[in-house]
Structure formats: structure tokens, C-alpha cells
Design a protein that fits this description.
Layout: E1 3-7, E2 10-13, E3 18-25, E4 32-39, E5 46-52, E6 58-60, E7 68-73, E8 78-83, E9 92-100, E10 113-114, E11 118-123
Amino acid sequence: QVRLVESGGGLVQAGGSLRLSCVASGGILSDYIMSWFRQAPGKEREFVAAITWSGGNAYYTYSVRGRFTISRHTFNNTVYLQMNTLKPEDTSNYYCASKRYTTGYDSERLYQYWGQGTQVTVSA
């Protein structure tokens, strides 16, 4: 049973930066993919970024490319989301998710394990 715990959310002004962390325990295997999703009030949960655990291949949704960077440190089982040049529309609850990577990565329906979420609020 994989357990994911996020941290690093908070309140920041537009143009600022935050780094989210997700610590995984319970057995992340080399064929897993780790992802970040976000959900704003009244909206569906949307894919933000993903990274393969073994090779570190990264994928991003269009709206965050060039601003967000996903990375992972296998020695401490942690995935990071560095968020720069934040915009008010980035305000959401951010969730870490993981699954064995066979095919697909940008749909929440594919993921088996979820964290509890961390709130990011960007003021104008």
C-alpha cells in the first residue's frame, strides 16, 4: 500500500514561487509514475505534471510549461513540483498521485494512490 504525503502549499503573490513536496512510502517500484493534479473549487481535477520514477521522463500540461518543473529524488522517495511565475489561476488544491506506468498519465481515473492535498493560493 503506497502512502503519499504532500507539503509546501501556502499563500503567495502573483509572480512568486512555491515548491511542493510529496513523500512516498510503502513501496514505490521502478515502473511507477508520479504525478501532480490540482482541483479548484467547482472545477474538475486536472493533470499538472508527471514524472517516471525510473527514468525521470517528465510531462506537463500546456498551461504550466516553462513555469513548473517536476523532479524526483529516489534516495528519499520524494517528488517535487517547483512552481515559478505563479498566477492567480494556479490557485487550487494540489494532489500527488501515483500508479504503475503502463499507458497514459493525464487522467485521474488511471491513478490508484492519492495524497490528501495541499492548498496553493495565489493573490493578484
